[in-house]
Amino acid sequence: MADPMRVRAAENGGTVDVKILMKHDMESGQRKDASGKTIPAWFISTINVKANGKDVFNGQFGPAVSKDPFLNFKYKGAKGDKIVVTWNDSKGDKRTDEATAS
Amino acid sequence: MNQQRRSLMKYSAVFGLMASAGLISTAQAQEWNKAAFEGKGIDDVFKILGADSPDKSSAVTLNAPDIAENGAVVPVGITSTLKAEQMAILVEKNPSSLAAQFFIPAGTDSFVTTRIKMGQTSNVYGLVKADGKWLMTVKEVKVTLGGCGG
Do A8 and A42 meet the contact criterion of CB atoms below 8 Å apart? Predict the structure, then answer.
């Protein structure tokens, strides 16, 4: 199982600012190992964020997103919103974490 | 009312089971756009996204550094004064141009920030789809140390 994400959500004036830091190698498929073999690509491909069960953000990543991807977006919401973040990677691994807007 | 609630519960139970059995996943609900992410040049990606030749617009702002010391971590953000439906970040000289694509539901601001890798100095494109039309903005980011090769 993949490492947990860090999810922070802060409400300010009716807008919730969500910051997500995912833990993932995001192997680009361009790098070579010591013996010169290409390391196959392995990256987070889709990410979904729900607040109180409703989609607030959907993203698709390519291998060109940095290692340990960071994501910041804002949506109209309120304190106490339950935020659920789920990502899927190119090997079919997935991870879900939750946070509460403060 | 009660009947409705019951059938809703039944449905969600079925969906829950299917999800746990791996029959439906969020990836399927929103399929990864393989063709777009494997598109080689920016024109390829524009075509796949259905953006043919997006107009440059001052309503789209790309927040990226002029010079990135480390190409492995380049902070890039897109904001727009329009109500964006979709956003995309493209790097012209990366092996695959499309770095990330975002879907912005109603109620979510036209604002996103992330970090991308850049192999070399290149133009970075910020695309926004608003009102069914793709708009873009371009900025050159100089990279002193590439982040794609090894």
Answer: no
CATH of domain B32-143: 2.60.40.2470
Q: What's the pLDDT tens digit per position in B91-144?
A: 998 888 899 999 999 999 999 999 999 988 999 999 999 988 999 999 999 998
Of B12-26, B40-54, B67-81, least confident by mean pLDDT is B12-26
Residue of B nearest to A34 (CA): B150
Q: Does residue B23 sit at the A interface (CB-CB below 8 Å)?
A: no
What structural domains does chain A harbor?
6-100 (2.60.40.10)
Region B39-68 average pLDDT: 87
CA distance A39 to B133: 38
User: ipTM for the complex?
Assistant: 0.90
The Cα of A3 is separated from the nearest Cα of chain B by a number of Å equal to 19
The per-residue b/e assignment along A20-54, b for 16 or more CB within 10 angstroms, e otherwise, is bebebebbbbbeeeeeeeeeebbbbbbbbbbbeee
- CB atoms inside a 10 Å sphere around CB B40: 11
Closest of B56, B55, B36 to residue B46, by C-alpha: B36
Residues of A in contact with B117 (CB under 8 A): 26, 28, 63-66
Evaluate if residue B13 carries a pLDDT over 80.
no
* SS3 state at A91: coil
A9 strand-pairing partners: A18
Domain boundaries, chain B: 1-31, 32-143
Beta strands B98-103 and A82-89, pairing class:
unpaired
